[in-house]
């Protein structure tokens, strides 16, 4: 059991929301179309999904308090990420998981991937943002709910082995803690995202889509 994880480890912090608004403005808004259906898996305080501008927004989290933190108009599902039965097949265009899969066993992640592919639209893809064990090994298990370690090599390999096509891999996309290590001014976040030099980069970004039968 994770206990009071949000009370002991993941406190609410207004700075985090500001960082996500800048990340949306300078990066994610270019990945999401206005007519997309966006699914935020492990939505937590809603920092990502609240910034999204799209036709339909869905937040999923096992945390019972999650619905009280999301913006008006965001649909909420409280339950394990392995259970996507409340979402219609073939509807999700942009699935997002931030700092989620390291909290699951590998078997659970494989189950999520199998279920999610039935929910994605023909243009649907999965974007994963999470710690890269290659660069964050010293701090990785400071979070007592982390159970599985992935790097920018092992995570894409796992996805590929289970029928997904890798579209992008960014080994050092963000610092490990975006609320404290990433500069909070939007213009500095924009500069960080553009910079090829990221010495603090310990979170990776992986984008994948289901591999077609022809592939």
Radius of gyration, in Å, reads: 16 Å
Low-confidence stretches: 5-11
The pLDDT mean sits at: 89
State the strand order across the main sheet. Answer: 3-2-1-4-5-7-6
* Number of strand segments: 7
End-to-end CA span: 40 Å
Percent of residues in helices: 10-25%
What's the helix count?
6
The major β-sheet equals:
7 strands, mixed
Q: Quick one: overall form?
A: globular
Structural class: alpha/beta
How much of the sequence lies in strands comes to 25-35%
Q: What is the element string, with H for helices and E for strands? A: HHEEEEHEHHEHE
Explained architecture:
The protein starts with a helix and ends in a 5-residue tail after the last strand. It has a 7-stranded mixed β-sheet. The protein is of the alpha/beta class. Helix 2 packs across helix 6 (186-194). Strand 4 (92-98), helix 3 (106-119) and strand 5 (120-131) form a beta-alpha-beta unit. It is built from 6 helices and 7 strands; from the N terminus they run ααββββαβααβαβ.
Question: What labels describe this entry?
Answer:
7 strands, seven-stranded mixed β-sheet, 24% helix, single chain, alpha/beta, 215 residues
List the helices and strands and how they pair.
Elements: H1 5-8, H2 14-26, E1 37-41, E2 56-61, E3 75-78, E4 92-98, H3 106-119, E5 120-131, H4 133-136, H5 154-161, E6 164-175, H6 186-194, E7 201-210
Parallel strand pairs: 1-2, 1-4, 2-3, 4-5
Antiparallel strand pairs: 5-7, 6-7
Helix pairs in contact: 2-6
Question: In summary, what is this structure?
Answer:
By secondary structure, the protein is an alpha/beta fold. The chain has helices at residues 5-8, 14-26, 106-119, 133-136, 154-161, 186-194, and strands at 37-41, 56-61, 75-78, 92-98, 120-131, 164-175, 201-210. The chain has a seven-stranded mixed sheet with strand order 3-2-1-4-5-7-6.
């Amino acid at each position: 059991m994770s206990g009071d994880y949000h009370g002991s480890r993941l406190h609410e912090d207004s700075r985090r929301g500001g960082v996500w608004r800048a990340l949306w403005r300078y990066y994610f808004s270019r990945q999401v179309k206005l007519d997309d259906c966006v699914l935020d898996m492990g939505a937590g305080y809603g920092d990502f999904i609240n910034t999204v501008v799209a036709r339909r927004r869905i937040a999923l989290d096992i945390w019972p308090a999650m619905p009280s933190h999301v913006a008006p108009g965001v649909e909420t599902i409280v339950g394990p990420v392995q259970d996507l039965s409340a979402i219609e097949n073939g509807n999700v265009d942009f699935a997002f998981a931030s700092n989620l899969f390291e909290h699951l066993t590998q078997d659970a992640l494989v189950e999520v991937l199998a279920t999610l592919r039935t929910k994605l639209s023909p243009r649907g893809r999965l974007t994963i943002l999470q710690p890269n064990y290659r660069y964050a090994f010293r701090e990785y298990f400071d979070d007592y709910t982390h159970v599985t370690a992935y790097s920018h090599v092992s995570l894409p390999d796992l996805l590929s082995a289970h029928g997904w096509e890798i579209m992008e891999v960014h080994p050092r996309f963000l610092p490990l803690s975006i609320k404290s290590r990433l500069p909070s001014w939007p213009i500095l976040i924009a500069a960080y995202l553009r910079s090829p030099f990221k010495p603090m980069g310990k979170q990776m970004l992986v984008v994948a889509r289901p591999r077609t039968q022809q592939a």
